[in-house]
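Complex 208.
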Amino acid sequence: MNQKTYGVVPGLNMGLFSPKELEEIVAIINKYDVPMTKITSAQRLALLGMDEEEQKKLKTELHPLIRPVAVNGVHYVQACPGSQWCKFGTSDSLALGARIEQISFPEPLPGKVKVGISGCRMSCTEPYVRDVGIFATKKGWTLVFGGNGGGNPRLGDIIAEALTDDQVVDLVQKCLTVYQQNAKYKSRTARFMERFGIDAFKEVVLSE
Ligand code: SF4
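Predicted structure with iron/sulfur cluster bound:
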């Protein structure tokens, strides 16, 4: 067995499982004798050290517990417990995350788009260093675009504040459409924003 195989299971509700769902997942993991599992930084489940064929079968069995992945959508959405489960939460980050996960495009996005959503301004999912960062204040959602936490980090730019759920979903769609239409292949949003310019970007996405 190749100890370096690394299979990731997406669509597991931003890392939120009911105890019953977790039991079902663990039963399947035990059935396939998975050598090791890991909760990834993207709030997904990694299956480590498995044979690729077995991994495919396991993923098929997990399928009923997995949310379908959008066509040409974002790479992943991290969301904090938000107002559903955290005493500091002022907005429902998990419900918003489920909507953002379902945004799809006719063509693949130019580069990976990582999304971080936080239910209050304490920003536990680090929205300023995500391609798309969203956090709640008492006035509504703030949308930040073009952040990156990697080897060449960049703080994202605030695009708009005090947004409703529908407004922030629409604006994310617009920001990603402009990114898709103008970014070079494999260019992440941080590098794209440096080239395109924040003022020009805001002018386009906030027009209409
Ligand atoms: S960002 Fe706010 S609501 Fe979300 S987990 Fe952190 S403290 Fe709680």
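The chain is about 35% helix and 20% strand.
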